[in-house]
Amino acid sequence: MTAPIAKRSKAQFEGYRAARWPEPVVTQMGCPGRRGVVFEEAPTPELPKGAARKTAPALPEITEHDALRHYLHLSQMTLGMMGVSLFGTCTMKYNPRIGERAALKHLADLHPLQHPDTLQGVLELYDNFSDFLCEVSGMDQFVFQAGGGADAAYTHACVTRAYHASRGELEQRDQIITTIQTHPCSPATANTAGFEVITLSLEENGYPSVEQLKSVVGPRTAALMVNNPDDMGIYNPDIKEWVDIVHAAGGLCFYDHANFNGVMTRLRARELGFDACMYMLHKTFGAPKGGGGPAVGAYGCAEHLVPFLPGPLVVKEGARYRLDDDRPESIGRVREFWGNAPQVLKAYAWARAMGAEGLREAADLSVLANNYMDHRLAQVRGVSRSNPGIDAPRMEMTRHSVEQVAAETGCSIFEISMRMTDFGIDALWLSHEPLLVPEPFTPEAGELWSKEDIDYWIDVLEHVIEEAYATPDVVKGAPHNAPIRQLTTALDEPDQWATTWRAYERKHGQRMAAE
Amino acid sequence: MPEDDLKRPRRLGLLVNPVAGLGGPMGEKGSDAPDIAARAEAAGRAGQAGARAARALAAFRRASEAPILAGPLPPETRAALDGEVETLDLGPTAQGRAETLAAVAAMAERVDLILFAGGDGTARDVAEANRAGLPVIGIPAGVKMHSGVFARSPERAGRIAAEFLAARTPRTDLVEILDIDEEARRAGQLSARIYSVARTPATRGERQNPKAGGGDMLADLDAALAGYVAGMVEETLYILGPGTTMAALKARIGGGTLLGVDLAEGPRITARDLSEDDLLERIPPGRPVRVVLTVVGGQGFVLGRGNQQISARVLERAGRPPIDVVCSAEKLAGLTPPELTIDTGDPALDAQLSGYWPITTGPGRKQVVRVVA
Predict the structure, then answer these.
(1) I need a surface site. Which of A146, A191, B44, B60 has the fewest CB within 10 A?
(2) Among B334, B338, B332, B328, residue whose Cα is nearest residue A205
(3) Is the CB of residue B355 less than 8 Å away from at least one CB of chain A?
(4) Which of A304, A331, A354 is the last residue of a domain?
């Protein structure tokens, strides 16, 4: 199936075929009496009355060997999160395995309810990392409680509420301003916190004008929540003026640093005037995400917002650290305990290993890599760039479109993306909604991938687009080499699909009995 | 174009449908009724098509000296041309629709672009007679203008025509000629039907996008509409525009018309399907008024398309009331360029209304969009 690709790096994915093991799900694999390790005298667990089951759970009876082989096969049927995954806005990075070892070694035996005197090491780590990020952002204090970027945005919406309430202006200030290209978690969390959301539209320069902002800023303005650069790759150079305008009206300014990779060490949110900002440790700071572990949205703010931060805060007194939970103006908690401590540790290890110079080099590399991609993608048939008339430099990612390919071949970006999985490429990141660019895709190379990897990714895209023109049915029927084929029914058919075995049995019990 | 044609200077074909747009201010859904001209005359109304064509030609002449071959022209259009125009002789029998068909047929191989003033009905006629496949650009002058051939304003139509005739390699796009499907309309669905396709000068953002089709966007807006209804106050008079989004709003307060302009006093509809005159009659001086509108399809029009009853005079009578626009974020995202358009027929009022408007897109959500004349 895999046709030769010009300029293809021969070393990788040659003749790629995903493993496709014809195995039933594990619940169907059992055979009575098969066991893993059998203990002669297994102790009966001490459980409260009522917690013990009356009947045994319907688990499959399989050997240890069967189980290992089954899960090995399943893992072979994934792309493994180690492919060339230029997943825009997600800032895909290698997650150093030493971070896993460090988290296991230093945190596995700790509990946040231990006396702080016995937690000095992890408290020091939190304090040091806060200092590190304060240096990066210019803020005065960081907290790591939020369990992701949206949770950190929600933290800001709550801090905004508490700040204006403390000044007796909450009734009046009921609007949060954002932009159409700011990630949807900002408007969503602003709504959740009870604010009305005012979204600014893009204009000729690729971002909303100062005049547009001025048209909505006023006594009702509670805050501005934006990211910059946006996913189209364009940096809004008026941002300092924006902050001044919102401040003059009495609002707060929050910098969502989801797209921080291209500007690391090149700007500080506080120096631009922002009152608060957020970093995603599971993206920009090298900690794993998705299947690799939970996330952390590190939220930082300037001194005037510190009283409202969720607690407890790590406080240094002399050479000792303690947890300060006696903070009457705090918004309370946005997550249990101190957030996902193992991820904080992994990100801290990554940040310390990188250092200031490493961060700067990574930022420069990610901008360079994106501009290299942009240059090559411009030569791919039928691919266009968002804001084609704007010559502003693109930062660490750029949104592109296959609108022309779709018009000329009938192959949509979804089908092109699925066909790319036939070459071991993760399905593309398209765009947040609503789609401002038709048939969009948004690759981001970051600092990780080699030129060969990036070239391979573009070679595959180029090849698939040529296929779309020559043999569109191959693209439309993809994937062909992946572990699974295209679904023929919609996933939102509740009668057909089940996410647990028990639900499957309930929905398909009659048919199964008949078979 | 044929090789030998390159030797003669490029020529513009000009056509004005004098009855286009007459039905709008009378509360009609178009000007297709055979007796529309007679009824308009009885009501003392003059068509706007001639004047709008004159505006387009003024813009055209600022950028081009190309010769013009025209069908029969209303006096105000002729005045704008200063006499420098060649007129087709169509004989005495051609009138109304037949006149349009005959003029277009006669322009074959004699012009390089047809600039016409009218609405969707005129566009359909032009496309039908345009066997030569000449590029076409429309001056918006009708009630319904869903077709992709219409520029967003008369001035833009003139400018596009001038640029097209001057271009070294003029490029065209294929666009649909749409009209409201009368059958679907009777069944209560606002759907534009495609009647044919035409070639039109390729531009970016200068033409109206063909009206974006169906989709169930009402569900997204339902909560927003509920919120709007909850905020309606008794002493205020609400002028409610046409469209499916507005119909959903109207359904919440007693039920109204899909394609008509209705009136509500507080959260209660009190009059339906009103003409411009009906509206003028029903706006008592001093009473607070709000106008509630939605965006018309993919064209980005909030005033001046399908809701001409809410005219400049009506807005003046109501004391230039606040205008609330409700539209889904998806529809706004489809606008190219990302702006909305108004065309009340009064350029001074249009200029005054232009600016940044907050559009309600959902519960607790507004999107700011630039509104241009």
Answers:
(1) B44
(2) B338
(3) yes
(4) A354
